[in-house]
Amino acid sequence: MSVHAAGPRTPRSSFSVLWRLAPYLRPVRLPVAGAIGAALAALLCGLAIPLVTQRIIDGPLHDGDMGAAIWLILLVAALGLAEALLFYGRRKLIARPTATVESRLRADLFGHLLRLPVSFHDRWQSGQLLSRTVNDLIILRKFLAFAAVFLFVNSVTLVVGLAVLFSIDPLLAAVGLASAAPLLLASYLFETRYKVAAREAQDQAGHFTTTVEETMLGVRVIRSYGQSGSRLRAFRAQAQRLRHAEVRVLRIMAALSTALLILPELGIAGQLALGGVGIADGSLTLGDLVAAVTVSTYLRWPTECIGWALAETSTAAAACDRYWEIRDTPPDLADPRRPRPPVRPACGHLRLEGVRFTHPGSDRPVLRGIDLELHPGETLALVGATGSGKTTLAGLVPRLSDVTSGRVTLDGVDVRDMRLADLRAVVGCAFEDPMLSSLTIRENVTLGAPGASDAEVREALRISHSLEFVDAFGPEALDLRLGEQGLSLSGGQRQRLALARAIVGRPALLVLDDPLSALDLHTEAEVEQALHHVLSHTTALVVAHRPNTARMADRVALLADGRIAALGTHRELLESSDHYRSLMSVSPHWTAGAADGEVMSR
Ligand SMILES: Nc1ncnc2c1ncn2[C@@H]1O[C@H](COP(=O)(O)OP(=O)(O)OP(=O)(O)O)[C@@H](O)[C@H]1O
């Protein structure tokens, strides 16, 4: 089970984190600029309304000229309508580019995840990856569509609004400014706390997703061990932690919002008091006071909005940080700079030379110097105690991991010098855990050989003894979509489909990691018989636990203490190696008969 969930990295300012999105915004800069332009135009319309109101009060209304007033009133209505239309235009313009940015970020993240080594996926919780691929990118899209635009536009609104206030009356403007300044300071101070809380809530959401995902995938085990109650308790505890984290975020936001609400009201009250004195001593007109209060009221929303936008910026920065945490992990299984062309036709000549391997994060080498050669067309069974490193060794051939030192060559070419696509076209793999996707049977089988014809698919299904149960699904069986992870099939059926997938492209080299473990002995023997026919033309490295599989091989390599402890035919090893005999559960006096094919159990 994967367990890793990275914490926040060295804190950096929200803006420097979010700046990394710039390359994604560049291609959509025109509609984004259009949306910002529309928002600024809407702001100008909104700010013009109090100035026209001032004119109406101090002009036509003061003089009793209703004819002139009508035109100005119509202008106010037109400005209001234009503001609403521009508001609509902004939303329409920003929707498509931000959705485009979101989908590009997601595609790049997903592509990167597929290039990251198996060891990365072993360490990371799948729920964390899921929540970063889905939730965090939704947060980023919403930030770009709303908060980022509002932050910019409302900052401009505040500056322009204060300038308008100063043009009406400097004293009233100073009162408005005095109420806005502490708000900006408070917003800045809240930002750091908010960012930490937002990051914690996002990490908790990732843990939560992991729990739900693991529970759904392991529902059979949970039910069969009567663990539903304990899983529910664990789920509730996690939901509680998520709730606490989210409540913390909301509390910080509530405190900030309260400050944002109260201070502008106090400012407007101050303006009314001072304005009243000004009108009384004649230094201010009624129109000036109405215009100043209207502008201040108008500025309440941008002020409030800046606080909200800063909080959203913190949330988005935390999501962005989580996104780049994965993108910054280097894919260690990249294509070489100057790939060597694959040998054509491939012979399947495999050599392991001085191969050593230590799992990342471990200090204990699993393989300590493996030298092994598989001649073209040869089948070699790899045998060893559980945990001896058979799967690890088999995974080095298709480069699921790379050797720590030494090298693996295929037809004389180091596999690290080949393009991954070229390598995987030559090497077919089947593992004990047959991962099937929720695709059709045909798509699952032709995963590594997309051009395979129906006849080739059916032949692979026949060899893997899958044809019978596949045909039982009906005439359109190949187009039948499997349930998630192939759960609508039995374990043995899934293994047989995975085997068909490995052999359908007739690869030059097959790597089979105990792919028949879920079959009954009788079916296994039949599949092996059919496989034997295929393997006579193909080089095969077969991880084997059962004597039947080992007996089918031309040679057997015994892996112990990270080295090849014995190499020979099944019969030779039965005679020469106590360790091999004990692994094959054969007593010494059985060896000759066993080698000739008598029944042995695992
Ligand atoms: N991702 C990993 N990180 C650290 N150690 C690992 C990792 N995967 C496997 N190991 C360790 O490497 C060793 C070899 O594991 P491997 O799965 O290759 O053994 P195996 O011979 O195939 O076992 P089995 O027969 O039970 O399938 C084991 O001790 C295992 O605990």
Automatic annotation (TrEMBL):
Keywords: ATP-binding, Membrane, Nucleotide-binding, Transmembrane, Transmembrane helix. Residues 33-302 form the ABC transmembrane type-1 domain. GO terms for molecular function: ATP binding. It is found in: Cell membrane. Residues 350-586 form the ABC transporter domain. The chain crosses the membrane at residues 30-49, 69-88, 143-165, 171-190, 249-274. SUPFAM superfamilies: ABC transporter transmembrane region, P-loop containing nucleoside triphosphate hydrolases. Its main location: membrane. This is ABC transporter ATP-binding protein. It comes from Streptomyces amakusaensis.
